[in-house]
Design brief:
Layout: H1 10-20, H2 34-42, E1 45-58, E2 70-71, H3 73-96, E3 101-111, E4 118-130, E5 151-152, H4 157-165, E6 168-181, H5 187-193, H6 201-224, E7 229-238, E8 246-258
Parallel strand pairs: 3-5
Antiparallel strand pairs: 1-4, 2-6, 3-4, 6-8, 7-8
Helix pairs in contact: 2-4
Length: 276
Amino acid sequence: MTIADAAIPRDAINRLNSMREGEHRGLFTSDLSVNEFLLVREAGFRPLGLVLGSSVYHVGLQLGRWSKNQELTTLSEAMYHARELAMTRMEAEADALGADGIVGVRLEIEFKEFGESIAEFIAVGTAVKADAEHPLAPTGHSWRNNLGQPFTSDLSGQDFWTLLQAGYAPLGLTMGTCVYHIAHQRFWQALGNMGANVEIPQFTEALYDARELAMGRMQAEAERLDADGIVGVQLRSLPHGWGGHTTEFFAIGTAIRALREDHTIAKPTLVLPLSD
């Protein structure tokens, strides 16, 4: 799904238009703290406004075999697609404001009372635009990524400032997800483990495999952005209402790339204490 395909509600379009052209022009909204706001400004970016994307999604049903470790692909696809819809709509709002990127992105999920299989996925962040004469950017540099989209980042204002000062630019928030069914132990195996310190190989293998799938998908997204690496990676285990032996592993981080091809990070100076 591309930004052009994102469906922005009419009320949101009116809000964005008023921020660009109407009575609220020059007034911005932001979920950044005061310290983060000042550091983002110090980094050469000015906030344009709070942008968000939402998707209320029905998560389908898929059953796993009782005794088998396996990914539940229907659920993995649902969780991934719903987050992508929310992210793309947030990016579309930023694009409508003429933003170069979105900082302080938060991705949240809320299961609703009107159905245990219905959840709202929400993406929220502050759209920003680089100063015309940005001191760190090479001549002709575009802060948008190689897909032509505003960059997205979940880094704090402090980390965002530090990243730019070190000569790197954010490209996009990359993520990977895997919903996995962990096999039950057979009766005699569970009975034999009672009272003993012993590894349960099938559990270890299941969790290891699920994390690897989530991490690999996050890395694949970073490769699409032609990134040098991913910083601030979080690997979360998210229990949902699918049963005690089913869990989601979610990997998320900010893909980055050096501002200059010949970029190197200066080595810190070692200061030795004076001897008596």
